[in-house]
Amino acid sequence: MHPLDEWIANQVLTRKEFADKLDISVATLSRYLSRDRVPKPKIMRKIIEATGGVITPENFYFIGNYKDVQFKKSFFGTDLLSIEVLNANEITSILDRSEYFIKPYGTLLNSQKNYKNRTLINLFFEDSTRTITSFELAAKRLGMNVINMQIETSSIRKGESLIDTAMTLNAMHPDILVIRHSLSGVPHLLADKVRCAVINAGDGQHEHPTQALLDALVIRRRKGKIKGLKVAICGDIAHSRVARSNIKLLTTMGAKVNVIAPKTLMPNGIENLGARIYNDMKKGLENTDIVMILRLQHERMHGSYIPSPREYFRFYGLDIIKLRYAKRDALVMHPGPINRGIEIDSQLADDIDRTLILEQVELGVAIRMSVIEHLISNIEN
Ligand code: CP
Q1: Which of 1, 137, 254, 378 fits 227 for a cystine, CB–CB 3.0-4.6 Å?
Q2: In angstroms, what is the C-alpha Rg of the chain?
């Protein structure tokens, strides 16, 4: 029974009477109660007020029994370099455990293992705001020591090679090295040289596994499932590691994926990952549940791929008009950083009814806590 249904029954009210208090139809209230829809902020505020704060927004996201799931010994290896090494059960295990970490973060520290003698090093050779900060927060919330290597002031500037740098850090016995690099394959190369666990935090245009995992968590919480959903990934597919990791994860979990881009930004062979290719937003967005938007990744472009940002926005930038091609309740995601007015309309980016950008950032911490815990368990065993 939905907690709000229970509250309504306890007040000796009918659904109709409660719906009248909110100025909505009983059909709309029933959709909230069946978790088919999340109330808009105005209605959410009325519900919180009417129930004296007993019911909160959290009650409307699909959380099933996930939060009761305790940590299970994981079965993938001691590194997380790519989504393709994970099967559906392993992905589900990481997502389920993340639910446990979402609220309250303190629970773990009272009931679970102590990681205070464990160390995580962030080794980012490429810029980051979300990923580096959330790995730091995740490790600290688990009680670990965290070191953020400052590449600009490191001995790399004196000519030390990538491999020598990684082996030097490894000699100090960290437990996890989180690596981001502009070249595809660097985390794989370094994982072969070091004893500690390696997490790929984004390598060139290859993969960004923890981004795909956090995106999956957001989708599952909002839609109640991943299997059977239709997801459109739109934008610079050619240079996107997020697109590759997401296509692999979503197809492994039974979703259908459309990729939409101009021909110049659509890589050869992407259909081999199981995605359907579209060069037109109208056709590609038809009947989709989730629309994932990607920015133009100029840092990986060599040459000119679009006539102008203005023309790109006209044909491929997502705004409320183009979003109408998708399902009525389709939700918008973006891994960030966003470029307003180029791949996404600024107003749509701020529309909390349709767009989940900050929720993606928020859940990134829980996903990374779960990944760290899985890997440390594997090191121990
Ligand atoms: N989504 C993502 O990887 O963002 P950052 O580059 O800020 O880490």
Answers
A1: 254
A2: 22
**148 strand-pairing partners:** 122
From residue 366, alpha-carbon distances to 66, 105, 141, 226 in Å are 13, 9, 10, 18
Cα–Cα distance between 28 and 41 in angstroms, integer?
14
8-state DSSP, 340 = B
Q: Can you give the pLDDT at residue 304?
A: 80
Pocket flag, ligand 1, residue 131 (CB < 6 Å):
yes
Q: 364: Cβ below 6 Å to ligand 1?
A: no
Count other Cβ atoms within 10 Å, centred on residue 182: 14
Report the separation in Å between the CA atom of 233 and the middle of ligand 1, taken as the mean of its atom positions. 17
DSSP 290: E
Dist CA 317 CA 311 (whole Å): 9
Is 209's C-beta closer than 6 angstroms to any atom of ligand 1?
no
Q: Which residues contact 106 (CB under 8 A, 6 or more apart)?
A: none
Q: For the chain, how long is the longest CA-to-CA vector?
A: 74
**Phi, psi angle pair for 149, to nearest 5°:** -65, 130
Which ligand 1 atom minimizes the distance to the CA of 360? 1
> Is residue 130 lining ligand 1, measured as CB closer than 6 Å?
yes
Query: pLDDT by residue (tens digit) across 152-182?
Result: 889 988 999 999 999 999 999 999 999 999 9
The pair of three-digit structure tokens given for residue 336, joined into one six-digit string: 């960030």
pLDDT per residue as tens digits for the range 269-281: 999 999 999 999 9
Evaluate: CB of 202 within 6 angstroms of ligand 1: yes
